[in-house]
Amino acid sequence: MIxxxxxxxxxRQFRGIQKIEFASEIGNEAKNVTVxxxxxxxxxxxxxxxxxxxxxxxxxxxxxxxxEQKELHxxxxxxxxxxxxxxxxxxxxxxxxxxxNNFIIRRNLLGMIDGGKRIEQVDQVSLAQITKxxxxxxxxxxxxxxxxxxxxxxxNVREYFLFDGEKIQRLTLANIEQRREIAxxxxxxxxxxxxxxxxxxxxRLKKKLNEELSKKSTGEFSRIIKQLNDLDEKRTNxxxxxxxxxxxxxxxxxxxxxxxKELDKFNEIRHLxxxxxxxxTLLQQLEEQAGNLLLEMRSKTGKAAVLLVSDTxxxxxGAIDQKKxxxxxxxxxxxGLIEKMLSDKKxxxxxxxxxxxxxxxxxxxxxxxxxxxxxENSALDxxxxxxxxxxxxxxxxxxxxxxxxxxAACKNEIEACRLRIETLNNEIGSAERKDAVDLxxxxxxxxxxxxxxxxxxxxxxxxLDNSESEYETLSTRRKTLEQxxxxxNELSERASLAEETYNALCAVYDDFTNEIKYAIAKExxxxxxxxxxxxxxxxxxxxxxxxxxxxxxxxxWGKPFLANISAGQRQLMSxxxxxxxAKVALSDAILEVPLFMDTxxxxxxxxxRKNLVEKVPSYCAQWILLAxxxxxxxxxxxxxxxxxxxxxxxxxxxxxxxxxxxxxxNIEDSLSILSEATEVMQ
Amino acid sequence: xSDINDLIRGKLEQYSPEIQKLALxxxxxxxxxxxxxxxxxxxxxxxxxxxRNKDS
Lengths: 682, 56
Prior knowledge:
The structure holds 2 protein chains of 2 kinds. By secondary structure, chain A is of the alpha/beta class. Chain A contains 19 helices and 14 strands. By secondary structure, chain B is mainly α. The chains are: A alpha/beta, B mainly alpha. Chains A and B meet through α6 and α14 of A and α1, α2 and α3 of B.
């Protein structure tokens, strides 16, 4: 498949009809590199999306796995808004060559805004094919078109050749199901599919002929043929059971992986959950403590109240105490006695007291200084009372102050504790799982299931091996009988030929797949060493292709190292694999499929970029680069210019919100358009 | 059969001409997109033809 041109009408950001013609020369020094560059959000991925949509009718890319289908819009919004409720026509048309035929696929869309909602509908699709003889074939049958496209570029392997540079590492991180799909697609590409069908067909023929032979034969020969047929059936069933077990194993492994992922999330927050539980217990204790302190303070309220009138107590006590010191309270002589002396006019010494005399006046003065007895008694009681208060007042003050301090500290701790719980709750967020225990139990069940499956698999394999061995023995016996008994009738010969052909195809298949895998691995390792930087070359020594066509890297000690390589190295590994696939599949010819890379440089170091730009144009028939303005700069442009393979250059320019214009640029102007690099290239 | 990998063809060369013919015919029919059952039925005729040619 060599892409010729992509025309878009009102597709995504591309308002109106806009076209890209790809560099599509063929040959060793052919100009086969197209660069499309622009800032983020200008529509580079939309170009990739347009091609995928046109070829396969799919709106979704691998990066859209978290996006709802209804959120994926293809028709240009500005055009729909301008049309005010009227439908807008949009389409993508892709022209490409394949095996000397020219194909033009066009896929139409309708879009409109109705009541504020965007409505889109995929309309018809058409395929025009012009053969090398000049004959034209047209179809609008979607199934037929899908079949044609899939034959040219199998949907399952398109990720290899039309891939998003950001997601390329997925190819080497594929789960079991993905690897199986990829393997299936690659088998198609390498034509192993046809070989597999041929094997099944000859097996079917063999079985049918043997059944016929069994019916027409007699004696031991007939018995042996029947046994061989039965064994053959048994082998087929066992293989089928083994395959089912393999599927079950895959699913169980996937399930276990998913459960482990959930449990990991939970384990990550386990320490947070423990911390929260501890904090909650502490909070409870502190609240209890605060309550107790409050109760204690309340119990002291009575006595503590004196603190509020402390100054008054001191004042009153002081006043009474002064009077006491002056001898005024209690007075030396009670007022009652003095009044009696004055009324009796007789002193306690029995002398008469005449009013107006000095002694009489002295006694009056004395009387004036005294106060009533009850008052004196009360004052004395007050003095005693206040004295006792003053004696314990200090203790009360200290006690109350201590309690208040403790209470304040406790409240601070409570506040801190609550804050910690809130922080922990935020960190835990939605990761908390009430069913973590159930998950763990589920995981145990899966583990047990895996062990059971493995045991069954071993048993089935043993049984299959025994059947194979028995089959071989019986086959030998059959041949002997055929020779001894000259059972060379035509039916017997046909059955033998079918059987031998089946065996030959199986042997060839095994040899072929092993050799292909080895050849791919060897070529991939070679390409990889060309693309890696110096440090990478020293560490990463070999690429292996596993039975399911998944990839592995061996380090310099021959140990698996895939899990440890960087995203950039993973990306280069995938590119190396693809290039190797091309070389091996077509015996040194380059793969006639475009290598379409969307932001390929994102994960690559400077030296990797340099190697990529220098080498990849020779790996493939067509290299289409979608790059941001920060990825593709003067340095990268210089390398491409020096390589002489750069054919087309487009810039995506914004013309307003959600509108991009595709501008074709002269390659020679690239150095004036592009920015300088910030790193120094060696 | 331009798409058949040379490796496969090369490996079949170690077998008898009859086996080679039948195997290559099986692959060719499979490549044409026919289902397995149809391929098998067609191969039944191919087998007869091959043995007839061998005898003659």
